[in-house]
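Hi V.,

You were right to ask for the full record rather than a summary. Here it is.
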Amino acid sequence: MLKKMSRFNSKGEQEFSSDAFKAGSPIEEANLFADPKEKKYPFDKLKAPAPYPEDVDPKRREEYLDAGDFEQVFEMSYDDFMKMPKWKRDVKKKKMGLY
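Predicted structure:
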């Protein structure tokens, strides 16, 4: 849901603006990073410590692994990984240097 804000300019006219593109908004972040479904990187480029490729969302680095690398690193498929509770996924990501 996009919030709309209004204010009056110096001419007394009402102006509307959307805060959808403010820094840190989901829409802006989506435009900053590559789609992990389309762009893949090897594990050694994604593991901690930084720097990571600049088009990688640091909160979702595991999604930039291809299926083979993912299974080798996590010893399970991505689908099985996503079925786990978030706290368990976070523990595994920390263990692998991807948190």
